[in-house]
Amino acid sequence: MSNFSESLHGLRDVEGLVGSFVLSEDGAVLLRDLPAMFTSEGLAEVGPRITRLRETLSSDGASANVVIRYADHKLILRPLPEISIVAVAEHAINMAQLKMALNLAAKALARADLSGVLASAPAVGTSAGPATARSLTGEATPSAQSTLGSSVPVQRYYRGRPVSSA
Amino acid sequence: MTTKTLASLNAESGTRGQDSGVRQVGFDAKLKHVTLPDLIQMECLAGSARSLRIVSGKNSGYLMFSGGQVVHAMTRALRGEAAALEILSWQYGSVEPCSLRLSDQRTIAKKWQELLMLAAQRSDEGASEGSNVTELDDAEFLSADEPEMLAVAERKRQKVIRATRLNARGEVVVARGEEDPEGFAEASAYAARMAHVIGDLLGMDGFRGLEWTLPDRAGILYLEENGGMAALEALPQADLTGLRRRVGL
Fold first, then answer.
1. pTM, 2 dp
2. Looking at this predicted complex, what is its ipTM?
């Protein structure tokens, strides 16, 4: 766990980085290095939505690197096997530096043993109420209600549509 | 250049004329598929003294006319001749008269004919470079009803995998490409909604757009000023820099 923390903390060397966090495949927040104004409850709602966005944009099993641009900030999503790093940055951040820092963080996370963190990951959607996609699409998204480590198979989505994991 | 409406080109003077009880001579007009050089030529030959506001995607700029010449131009970042050439490089958009005051100081010394020649020359050079660096022409999906622009973009079209455009009501205006363009339109709309919600939850306002990269493609999605959105996926070697700059990402 401490290795993870150091990996994320290293991102702060890049000027303009607000903070970062790590999500599981289902959107559970595994680790965070963010200012206190980003509450755990808020992140618990954000995680599954970032996952759905990533799955919407992914293709043929490849996960997309995503940059979302807002008026003053950027959200950078770097997918890795089983997890994703999400960086919150100011608009003017040096993207080349950030990409390099993310590469290093990704290497450090890839070397680490994830099993412990994944096993202790909180249930997605349970800490912040029903963070389902019902209000967005009119139908609940099972992935937002699933539990990590559960024997219940997680419904996968591709471009907003359920797909077989087989 | 396609003009959404040029009806107001004479609207200001026409309105004043009606208010004062004096009937103005001239017609209001709605024109489509007019190029910016055409408009500049019309203004200069008419010897008009007024300003036009040009909007192209996220870009906007002003051209000011006086004494049969383009005397001043400006964009967000440029002034004078550089701004005029930048504006003349835009391929689509709308034009409307505006009340921007003419600068006392003329910032464009070239005659309008020289200005247009220079713009045309730069356009040719840009097209030549573009064919080598796989420049992407987004006109083919941005303008659904402009067949001539489609023809111009045809040579670059193979770089675009699929493209879509939705209006502010979420209706699909354009969905092109061989790879499930309708699905891409739905996915783009959903992705934009997710990005909005994520921003709201994190306290980050003003969602403008997003970009994504995959091993076999790169994508870009952006909001338009009219509340609609456009998105495309292109091959990795396609250069999205121009589009990114144009839409302010």
1. 0.55
2. 0.70
